[in-house]
């Protein structure tokens, strides 16, 4: 078991210890489930009420708040906690044995780097190149001409189709399919003729792809996921899409063909984008946002069709009043009809 003093952890995160720097820490946990010997963190004021009940031995926070134990004070508690978690888990790849499992099926022309780990029943096709220290876990399928960079972690049941290129330090979770055919058909009368998808997928360094996500190969050219992007579970990325550096795509996002995302774009859960548009650098699409046209940089949009967030909020707020407004309208309509009937009978009496 790895044990650190609080003072040692403070040096790792660049923080200041408030209290006993000799407190021994042997693990990390969330504020509600932490126990003695573990360190937790407080980054969101919503969880401050748990400070009084947590059993953690130490806390990472912006201040000591109402916590009775020792604290590492930092400017960014969440980032500091990430560093501590990484410190305690940095040896996670070591649990996978280096070498090739005897049940793996590997083409003679494939190249496997030093200290790579190839698990049980992995299938590796012709001319595949797997770099040093890559880990490919059981039942993954790597088709011909695929390139996988250093220190990648490929979880079970991942399929990487032919000619896909994976950078270094990429994490791909179970059920992901990379490089399947893009959804391309040409109309021929009543028939849909399949368009051969002859492009590839490129995943740059430090990307993480969540479980059961699919990234289609380009019709021609490349579907590109740039460096540092993080993609959640159950995301669909269509042919020829470009995802900019350090972008974040939450669960159930769908990006249609040939759409381009700039750097640091955020797509919240279930956002849907039509094809052939551009999302500017730093833009954000709210949950279930339906984007039908290009978005300028640093713009926040939400709703369907997606509008600037402040406008979408006003529209939503107004829509909640519609039932009452409809009732008022019907009441007014009845009053007008009553007045018109009364006015009509009065005119008849005068004429008589």
3D architecture notes:
The chain is an alpha/beta fold and 352 residues long. The chain folds into two domains: 4-90, MurE/MurF, N-terminal domain (Udp-n-acetylmuramoylalanyl-d-glutamate--2,6- Diaminopimelate Ligase, Chain: A, domain 1, 3-Layer(aba) Sandwich); 97-311, UDP N-Acetylglucosamine Acyltransferase, domain 1 (3 Solenoid). The strands form seven sheets. The chain has a twelve-stranded mixed beta sheet, covered by helices on one side. Strands 9-12-15-18-21-26-29-32-35-38 form a ten-stranded parallel beta sheet, with no helix packed on it. Strand 22 and strand 23 form a beta hairpin. The longest helix is centred in the last third of the chain and has 30 residues, at 322-351. The chain is flat and about 95 Å long. The termini are far apart.
Any chance you could write out the topology, listing elements then pairs?
Layout lengths: L3 E2 H8 L2 E3 L5 E2 L1 E2 L9 E4 L16 E4 L8 E4 L3 H13 L9 E2 L4 E2 L4 E2 L4 E2 L4 E2 L4 E2 L4 E2 L4 E2 L4 E2 L4 E2 L4 E2 L4 E2 L4 E2 L4 E4 L4 E4 L2 E4 L5 E4 L4 E2 L4 E3 L5 E4 L4 E2 L4 E2 L4 E2 L4 E2 L4 E2 L4 E2 L4 E2 L4 E2 L4 E2 L4 E2 L4 E2 L8 E3 L4 E2 H11 L2 H30 L1
Parallel strand pairs: 4-5, 5-6, 6-7, 8-11, 9-12, 10-13, 11-14, 12-15, 13-16, 14-17, 15-18, 16-19, 17-20, 18-21, 19-24, 20-25, 21-26, 24-27, 25-28, 26-29, 27-30, 28-31, 29-32, 31-34, 32-35, 33-36, 34-37, 35-38, 37-39
Antiparallel strand pairs: 1-3, 2-7, 22-23, 39-40
């Amino acid at each position: 078991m790895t044990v650190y003093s609080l003072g040692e952890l403070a040096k790792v995160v660049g923080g200041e210890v408030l209290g006993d720097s000799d407190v021994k820490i042997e693990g990390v946990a969330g504020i509600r489930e932490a126990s003695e010997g573990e360190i937790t963190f407080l980054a969101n004021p919503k969880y401050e009420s748990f400070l009084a009940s947590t059993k953690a031995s130490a806390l990472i926070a912006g201040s000591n708040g109402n916590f009775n134990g020792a604290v590492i004070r930092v400017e960014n508690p969440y980032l500091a906690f990430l560093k501590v978690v990484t410190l305690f888990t940095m040896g996670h790849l070591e649990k996978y044995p280096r070498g090739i499992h005897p049940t793996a099926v590997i083409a003679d022309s494939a190249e496997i780097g030093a200290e790579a780990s190839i698990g049980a029943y992995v299938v590796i096709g012709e001319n595949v190149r797997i770099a040093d220290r890559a880990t490919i876990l059981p039942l993954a399928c790597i088709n011909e001409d695929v390139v996988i960079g250093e220190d990648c972690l490929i979880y079970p049941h991942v399929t990487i189709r032919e000619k896909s290129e994976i950078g270094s330090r990429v994490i791909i979770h179970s059920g992901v399919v990379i490089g399947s055919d893009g959804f391309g058909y040409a109309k021929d009368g009543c028939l849909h003729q399949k368009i051969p998808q002859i492009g590839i997928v490129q995943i740059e360094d430090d990307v993480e792809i969540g479980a059961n996500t699919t990234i289609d190969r380009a019709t021609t050219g490349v579907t590109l996921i740039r460096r540092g992007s993080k993609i959640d579970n159950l995301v669909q990325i269509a042919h020829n899409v470009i995802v900019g550096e350090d972008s974040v795509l939450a669960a159930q996002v769908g990006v249609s063909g040939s759409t381009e995302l700039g750097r640091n774009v955020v797509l919240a859960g279930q956002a849907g984008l039509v094809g052939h548009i551009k999302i500017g650098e730093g833009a954000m699409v709210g949950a279930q946002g339906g984007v039908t046209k290009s978005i300028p940089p640093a713009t926040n949009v939400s709703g369907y069709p997606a509008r600037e967030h402040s406008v979408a909020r006003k529209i939503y707020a107004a829509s909640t009043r519609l039932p009452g407004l409809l009732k008022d309208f019907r009441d007014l309509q009845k009053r007008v009809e009553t007045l018109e009937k009364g006015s009509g009978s009065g005119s008849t009496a005068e004429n008589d």
